[in-house]
Amino acid sequence: MLSRPRPMITEAARVFATLSLGFAVAVASSVTAFAQGVPVIRDAEIEALVRDYARPIFRAAGLANDGIDIVLVNDSSFNAFVTGRRMFINTGALMMAETPNEIIGVIAHEAGHLAGGHQQKLRDQLERAKTMAVIATLLGAGAIVAGATTNSRGLAGAGMGVAAGGGEMAQRSILAYRRTEEITADRSAITYLNATGQSGMGMLKTFARFQTALSLSGAQIDPYRISHPMPQERIANLQVLVKQSPNVDKLDPPALQQRHDMMRVKIAVYMGGQAAAARLMQKMRGSLAAQYGDAQSTYLYGNLPAALVKTNALIKAQPKNAYFQELRGDILMKANKPGEAADAYAKAVSLDPARSGLLPVSLGQALMAVGTPDSLKKAIIQINNGLGRDKENSEGYRYLAQAYGELGDIPGAELATAEGHFYSGNYKDAKIFAMRAQQRMKRGEPRWIRAQDIINYKSSGKI
Ligand SMILES: [Zn+2]
Asked: How far is the CA of 157 from the centre of ligand 1 (A)?
């Protein structure tokens, strides 16, 4: 299930203010943007797929040994950015890419910037920042630069003032690579793609699209296009490099293409609305991806028994697909059958090759809804299991606090609330709840020690 956690506005604004003087105006506009809509979405299936795209490329680039976190930004423009440990990618980028290779090419290019140490100072700052703060920065950066380019009002208008006052300094300090850096990143990208036996055609297609789109006036400005300058000669040089590669005609494996199609259908159904989803499903008609979209659409907009029949058919086609089981769990939860939903989520957890922290939390929610003392205890185990894999899942701590509360474990609930604030970067409230939790704990017990860690934690001051 695609879900949207609540944004942490104060933290975002604070980090914004510390990044550079040029951001001062952007703070207000970014907070407005945050208040209007939650920019991050969580989804086990999509995160796993994008991680599968990135992993071989990062390995070829000699980066990130222990896996990277994928952060999905709910924005229809094209953008992608890697801080080091985390990769931020817009749903718009995933929707625009018709093949995995198009996204993999962009990831390879980003890995080239990372390996080349380009924009290292900004990257270091963002690496220390909490996820929500980085999103605000990246969205804000797009708004600022877009404002400088389009002369439009509102959000972008605020950005225009920054760009005009700070000149090139402001733009440089946000995120804009030099032409020489672009050439280096392109060359590195081709090296990584060759090392992993993949074509550069997807990257070329994506960048060439930006090149032609530049002539359109009044169209939405993709932040990616502005931070990565794409003059004609760059595309021409890239074309030569791509065509020289022995892998130029290689296509994505069919199974990967199928997962890509299923991801796009899912984003369309959950984020784009019924009409957008119907258009995409029409293009993919007859495929499992179209069937998947139909089942999800029926779940969201139609009736639950029909959605269940369609999902059972999907499970029959791919019995080992964890995310079909997850959809079954979502449907059963909505149908108020938490016991059966828990069974489906439990299957999803056991089938999930990516060991996402989100699925155990969903299982925990279903067990909470069952509501017996025994199922509440099981829920706590599952949610803790999920949070152990994915510490920044602030929703998870809310459910954990609720489960402890329902069992009458008040200090447990307070500590879970403290953890939620802590991992959201809200250290002040985290300390308040940690101190409250300690008042009812035995001094020195493991939970008391964890609360003490939160109380003693000193944020670096900068971010
Ligand atoms: Zn670039």
From this structure: 25
